Amino acid sequence: MRLGDAIKPCGPVIDAKAAARARVAIGEGLGLTEATWAALDPVFAASPYLTSLARRNPARLGSLLADDPTARLEDLLARTLTVSRGLPGEAEGGLRRLKQELHLLTALADLGGVWDLDQVTGALTRFADAALGASLAVVARQELAEGRLIRIADPDNPVPGWFCIAMGKQGAHELNYSSDIDVSIFFDPEALQGVTAPGVEPLTMALRLTQRVSDLMQARTADGYVFRVDLRLRPDPSSTPLAVPVPAALEYYESVGQNWERAAFIKARACGGDLAAGQAFLDELIPYIWRRNLDFAAIADIHAIKRQIHAHKVDERVSAAGVDVKLGRGGIREIEFYVQTQQLILGGRHLELRSNRTLDALGALAAAGHVSAAAAGQMSEAYIWLRAVEHRIQMIADEQTHRLPESATDRRRVAALAGYDQLRGFDQAVTRTLRTVNARYGELFAEAEQLSSRFGSLVFTGVDDDPETLATLSRMGFPDPMRVSQTIRAWHHGRVSATRTERGRELFTRLAPRLLEAAHATGAPEIAFRRFGDFFEGLASGVQLQSLFLAQPRLFELVVQVLAFAPRLASTLARRPAAIDAMLDPEFFDQVDIAPEREHMAREVRATGSFEGAMDVVRRLHREQAFRIGVQVMSGSSSAGAAGRAFAELADLCIEALAPVALAEAVRLGGDFPGEVAVVALGKCGSREMSATSDLDLMTLYRAADPTATSSFKGWDGSSFYSRFTQRLIAALSSPTTEGQLYDVDMQLRPSGTKGPVAVSFAAFADYYQGEAETWELLALTRARVVWASSDAFADAAAGAIEAALRRHHDPSRTAADVREMRDLLEAERPPKGDWDLKLSPGGLVDIEFTAQFLQLVHADRGGPLSPNTSAALDALGAAGLADPQALDALSTAWRLQQDLIQLLKVALGDDPQPDDEPKAFQALLARAGGVRSYRALRSRLTGARSAARAAHLALVKV
Length: 959
Prior knowledge:
With 959 residues, this protein is mainly α. The chain is built from 42 helices and ten strands. Strands 1, 2, 3, 4 and 5 form a five-stranded mixed β-sheet that branches. Strands 6, 7, 8, 9 and 10 form a five-stranded mixed β-sheet that branches. The longest helix is centred in the C-terminal third of the chain and has 31 residues, at 640-670. The radius of gyration is 40 Å and the shape is elongated.
């Protein structure tokens, strides 16, 4: 059968002038009949690429048309094998010219209705195999000539131990018209060593062969290229060589191989090199590919291959313009996934379902009753039609694309090659077919959990970034969707401990879309994802935690929110992922009560037996509780007052645990000393108003049993002994260890500040506050609180001394003048850094604190209330009728609002926050903390509250 006599017109001639020009250029001398020309005209009118092949060598066209297409194919394949006997330069040109001939032959046989889909894809695949074999033979002879190979014993297997595994469509004899070839190269080191020269490592030889074969196949010359070679389906391609040793490959697939890789091996076959070794390798993988026993989790993970594709229904109104007939919804990939996912689940026990060809496998599924005859028929028909359209898209310009042109003019070319007179009819057929496939695809595992997003598909299988997934990630707000996709695929590959086990990867398959949704919900998806990555990659194991996140989605969303908005907490999680174990406690979100931890911490400290060990124990327990308080602040489950108390009680607990240890250190260094000591907290710790970033303002008071007493070992006096105690306490609280740091400690609020001794004697304290203390020191003393003492009696004595100092008479006018002068100086030397400087802004925390402290100080001598806590002090002053109720109410309102805000800001952003620059989702959290619905309303409320507080401050602190 002559091809020229058999071909029929594929469709209309959409460009008569182009067809006429082709006739002239090709020439009438070929002796073609008018019927043959009539069949060629639609092709040359629509396809610039096929026209160029015909015009480049009219004689070749004439010869093709004069031959039987099947016989011509066999002759072409035979000539391909002879190329292997030529020189490299000759092989390069010869293979490319043969590829041109093959392309022209298959296109005409396909478009002319002479060959069906199997014959077309079979011809393309057989040539790819032959070209690979010829290229290997040429390269092997080069290596032999250059002395790296010592012999070529078998022309059909020139390099024993080195082999190609065809993956994807080449493996299934389903290669498309302009396809690249997906091959994985493996080698047996022992077999390869037998033919390599001394001093040449098998890996080196395997890589040279792989690279040179690839270059010979894909380098572009004046004659084009043979095939693009894609080597990325090998195990973990980002971290393995281009050619992988067989033992390493088998270990990879048995330990961290993924289900999508199992699916890829359904189509695999040995296609080049040592075919026997290749088949033996595939035989070794049969238990990996075809598992007889699958638990629920493994089946769910296989389902995930399908469920990652968003289940949008293809609407009749969808335009065919720009549709990807392979990767788009309802495309070829959905048909392949439809088949392969069921093969993976059922094929372990049913050998008849293991075909590597899509249509054969679909038929086997139907014959076994796993797929209805109607579904199999529709999917098969759609597959054949979409593959034909795919080929015609590629025939236009020989481009590896599966996307229909956006332009109607260009799309008419594809429609004409597909046999459609009208573009509208072609577009309708495309949409109808995609809708049919998508509907059947949606029926598969319909009840299972969706792993896509409302924004679109989230497919992370394979080695390429899925275009639909990149578009989804972009819609979700990720500025670098490619990086996100590659990171998730790397995690799927088991490159982090959390996904190194099969169970870990199965869980992550389900967690990944929830992670991306949660990151999007924060309004800062890139930051949330990056910080989650820092945390996730630090996990020693991921099964328990991923299971927890999947079981408690609201908890997971909160964790992602914390990671997005709270760098300090995110850093804690990244450095110490075990901190999240506390969230497993059902009481985690209950109001924090530090008291039960007191005995636990004391017991742990005693068990260490060393100063350094005690420091580490306290830091570990502090980290857990600080993390808990911070998360409660972020979640809104803890009020500012409760959080301030909890942070302060945690600081108290640390001091209570470490002070005895520091005292023991002083005794160890200097010997016993007869005396007593107390630790007094001032500032935010003293007033129980601490935040996540607060430091500790401390003072130590001591009283020697005898003014002349000395320590038993070193002979230290009281000042020296208790100074050593204070120094060790400061070190215990502030020095960084492997477990981190607790607090910065400031001792400047003690009498005489940095000029006086670090430990203050009881007598010196009383004398100082009776005569020398300045007003600002007395204001600071209103927040003093005894946190720890070596005896209850001395704790009472220290508290009594503090109260006595405060209850002395303080002239109201002079004190008011001092307070106003201090506030004016502070405003001049330390102006607020912006609107969100809640401490120093007019009407901010300093104004309110100064007012509360002033009022306590001037009324204390007459029995007025004393309270270290600002809010409690304002309430007590109001209850005692010692100030204007409206002014006190304005101060209390502004105080509570700014405390609510500062707790969240300190947990989330640390010092110097700028909420205006933060995502809207964080601004919404801040508005919630401020008791309003919007960030704009929050700013308005804050401005009003501070204005009222400033006016109250000026009214109450009168000069």
